[in-house]
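Figure-free illustration: sequence to structure, shown twice.
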Amino acid sequence: MAKAIQYWLMKSEPDAYSIHDLAKDKTTHWDGVRNYQARNFMRDEMKIGDRVLFYHSNDKPPGVAGTATVCKESYPDFSAFDKKSKYFDAKSNKDKPRWFMVDIKIDEVFDRVVSLPEIKEVVSLQDMVLLNNSRLSVQPVKKKEFDVILKLAKKKA
């Protein structure tokens, strides 16, 4: 039996890698995650076909800028092995990798960002991990939360 699609929110600073960069590239690897809980989500739970809300963090205001789909499941994050990378980790090696990543592909760039202040005002989104563990860069999202964000994106600002 096919596994049910899961939903996620992945954060990126738009000056480092934005939804527009993903739209240009079509796919990307999600490297540089150095939080164990976020790593575990990517390594253990994300599957091909899972849907992603692409979140611009450290923006004015921060918010969801579009959607993507997981197109390659977990594999070792090679930036951890590169001594020149800001994500280098001397304790991680190819035989026993500590960090993992997934690949995502672009689905949609929203006409407008669904801002964090707007999300905070929606009663049905009050239990989102985003509002309760805001530091987590990769986090689960419920289907109903994903659908509400999509509806908000279609509304005029």
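We now fold a second protein in the same way, so the two outputs can be compared directly.
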Amino acid sequence: MLACVEFDGEDRARLAYAHGRGVLFFTGHFGFWELHAIVHALRIEPIGVLARALDNPDLNALLEQIRQRTGNTVIYRQGTIRRVMRMLQGRLGVAVLIDQHILTRDAIYVDFFERPAATTSAVAALALRTGAPVVPVFALPIGGGRYRMIYEHPIEPPPSDAKDAVREFTQRCTDVLEMYVRRHPDLWLWMHRRWRDAGPSTDAVPGMFPSAEHDIEEQA
């Protein structure tokens, strides 16, 4: 697999690890995200991958085997926040997908393609609580059966005491994902119902916890 990929921004990922607070990697259902997680473990180090178990247990077991074949750990719903916190405290990386509609009342609405989209607050909440760097990652095909693994610059967090800090952080993450989807719309999994309503019914901002506990459990 390593012979089929090249890395862009690997130094950014290694520098993020060097802070000693773990790293939160995020992407969407975009490009070759599963491949990126697999080769990241080979090139840098294994990570935790947040996931929702497939409804078919046999298919889920097969997918889990593929995801863990290079040393990664799949993190399912039970005890999610505790496991993620332990991994970050152990200076490890955790990968999250941020482009699915969140069903809980604690979802944060941010703009995605100029429309309000219910988005997980987990990445922002965890980053503000732990100080872990947040690094956007994308895996693009470059032809000839080869792929480019991209590590973008870490997202600059707002001050932790800023008004709506979690929302602002989440918007900054979403803006980077939108930028890549605009560049490569054919690589995004458009079949997901990303926009399911017109926006929040109130303007209340969810707290940092337990909203992240609910939101993080909805990830696929």
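Summary for the second example: The first strand starts at residue 5 and ends at 8.
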